[in-house]
Design a protein that fits this description.
Layout: H1 4-13, E1 19-21, H2 22-29, H3 33-45, E2 49-53, E3 56-59, H4 66-70, E4 78-79, H5 81-87, E5 97-101, E6 109-111, E7 114-118, E8 127-132, E9 135-140, H6 142-151, H7 159-166, H8 174-184, H9 187-199, H10 208-215, E10 222-223, E11 232-234, E12 239-241
Parallel strand pairs: 5-7, 10-12
Antiparallel strand pairs: 1-3, 2-3, 4-5, 6-7, 8-9, 11-12
């Protein structure tokens, strides 16, 4: 089989903006990965495909969906933190960075105005599948996403964005949230998350989730965000919060 035949099949089957891994290209062209690689190099030279990185290409002519592209960076994988918030319907759809977790680390890179970054830790639990266009991608569940983002708020755009995202999350499984809080063994995490959930107005103090988080709060004072001058004490959670985070009832 010459390079022309696999190239012709790929040119016909892959639409503009579609990402394709080397393995997928070999399946589409019904050939070996070696011949598929040669075909992609040929198509890249003529401008029909653009090489993203090793073993990953995009059909030229349109911007790729960043989630579909990110799903081909490593196997297994899951979108995490802010990227997972958006997939769970609780974060801005327009993002400048895709965070992908996998046991196989990859170097950060940029493509088509999007930065793709490997994120730790890899945990092969609390992962669900959600549809993105014509395919499904893997992302952390709403419960794990919320706890992960509270654990490292910088990966979710900061405390402000996370506080807004809480209102948009689907109904949470309380036991699952607590399980992920316990996974990190951090009392400060329980206090910060409990305070944000309670302040959102979606969770009353006597609900099982808030009660469970309250029993896990630290015995010493902690900060909601980074340590800053000022702030007010929310004694119920042993938490010092910026003034604008304190509800009228605090």
């Amino acid at each position: 089989m010459t390079t022309d035949q696999p190239a012709s099949l790929l040119r016909t089957a892959v639409l503009p903006g579609e990402p394709v891994s080397l393995g997928e290209a070999a399946d589409i062209a019904r050939t070996t990965t070696d011949l598929a690689s040669r075909a992609l190099i040929y198509l890249g030279a003529e401008g029909t495909f653009v090489r993203v990185r090793r073993r990953l290409w995009v059909r030229s002519g349109a911007a790729p969906d960043p989630y579909r592209l990110g799903a081909r960076l490593a196997q297994p994988y899951a979108f995490v933190y802010g990227s997972a918030l958006a997939l769970n319907g609780a974060g801005p759809a327009e993002r400048s960075e895709m965070l992908v977790s996998s046991p196989h680390r990859f170097s950060a890179f940029e493509f088509a105005g999007m930065r793709y970054r490997w994120a730790r830790p890899w945990i092969d639990e609390g992962i669900v599948r959600v549809s993105v266009g014509a395919e499904f991608v893997r992302t952390t569940s709403p419960e794990r996403t919320l706890v992960d983002c509270m654990h490292i708020p910088a990966n979710a755009g900061g405390i402000d964005e996370l506080a807004r995202a809480i209102d948009m999350l689907p109904v949470l499984d309380a036991e699952e949230v607590v399980r992920w809080v316990d996974h990190y063994h951090e009392a400060a995490l329980a206090a910060r998350l409990g305070y944000l959930l309670e302040s959102s107005g979606l969770h009353e103090p006597k609900t099982p989730l808030i009660r469970a988080l309250h029993t896990r709060r630290p015995s010493h004072l902690v900060y909601l965000a980074e340590r800053r001058p000022g702030g007010r004490l929310v004694s119920r959670w042993n938490l010092i919060v910026p003034p604008y985070f304190v509800p009228d009832s605090a």
